[in-house]
Specification:
Helix content: 55-70%
Oligomer: single chain
Structural class: mainly alpha
Order of helices and strands: HHH
Distance between the termini: 55 Å
Number of domains: 1
Shape: elongated
Strand content: under 5%
Length: 64
């Protein structure tokens, strides 16, 4: 089975990157992935404290 030179080089480069990333993580110098920004929804009192709603109902309304 023939594997082209370009394919062999790209696979070797991927392997080196994986090893390098692993070592950086072990040494504590790896770049951390960007943090996800979670938008918070402002709830009105009528949504969360409406009469007759149970805690589960308020939870469902807050998730919307």
């Amino acid at each position: 089975m023939y594997i082209s030179k370009d394919q062999r080089l790209s696979e070797a480069l991927k392997a080196k990157k994986r090893v390098g990333n692993h070592l950086k993580q072990q040494w504590g110098i790896a770049e951390k992935p960007p943090r996800k920004v979670i938008a918070q929804r402002i709830e009105t009192k009528s949504e969360t404290k409406a009469p007759g709603l149970t805690g589960v109902d308020r939870y469902i309304l807050a998730k919307k």
